[in-house]
Amino acid sequence: MKRESKRPTITDVAEAAGLSKGTVSRVLNGGHWVSPDSRAAVEAAIKKTRYRVNPHARNLAMSRANTVAFLLTEGQRVLFEDPNFATLVRETGRALAEQDLSLVLIVAGSPEEQSRALNYITAGHVDGVLLGFSSHYGNPLVESLLDAGVPVVASGQPLGFEGRLSCVSVDEVVGARTMVEHLRSHGRSRIAFISGPADTPGGVGRLEGYRRGMGDLYDERLVASGDYRREAGEEAMRELLRRDPDIDAVFAANDAMAAGAVVVLQESGRRVPEDVMVGGFDDSVFATQSVPQLTTMQQPFARIGSEMVRLLLNAIAGEQPASLVLSTRLVERASTAAERLVSSVRSE
To answer: What is the pTM for the complete model shown?
Structure first.
């Protein structure tokens, strides 16, 4: 008796098409999130393997969740310590609400949390993912989401995934260079820099902007690294003062670290801005709550949020990845204010 050949599966189709099972699944479920070339390859593989679609399963899969995930791949501390995160969640939520879509927040800092997040997202509970701050180079969770064909839009340039997903970022290099040039315009030359993590977009771009702004004055001894926490700014500032007590300005890669630097400078007996000017990046509450208030580079978080949602909806509709780069704006406050310096000189 002749044994009936094995019925072809979605895995067989994926192998014949040279694509992921996620891409094949999207073609079978209506063609969402798939490029024309991939769709053609899948259709050819279906004919070659003689794969037959289960109509019931297809009808279930074609239903939309009308929900988007905001994915944070850092630890839970970011929820409570980073005011920019709350601002971006609020703005993306507002933009989604205008489209009658819901937002679910997923915090996945540990490998176990990331595994659960991947299972939840790829099970069809959301239509796409907004990727939050500080996605590190080659993040394996992001890689898995892309392999599964999930539409993803990142906040900031996604290191290691350039061209594979849409993103909305600010011009990190120009913003940082603008701050350094601002400090130099006040006659400061020993300008230290507290950088962010070297495997994040801000960590890379803002260091490059600082380097360009310093030009021939660049000195690697004046660079210390941090992780965007206020405490990291304090630690880096102490180290920088040990290396060079004559520092006359400090630029930190975010406001939290800049605020930490101010505390250490004041503890050491140095006046801000008279002895040492301080600049930050973001224009967060850390900038306005610092004493003195911080000069900083303002990120347009409201527009970043709305543009992320727009690009995600485009990705869900099957459009190719796109990258949008926005400008930052210098906001001058007391930590570099020339008026305060003039007043101090007159009082002496």
So the answer is: 0.78
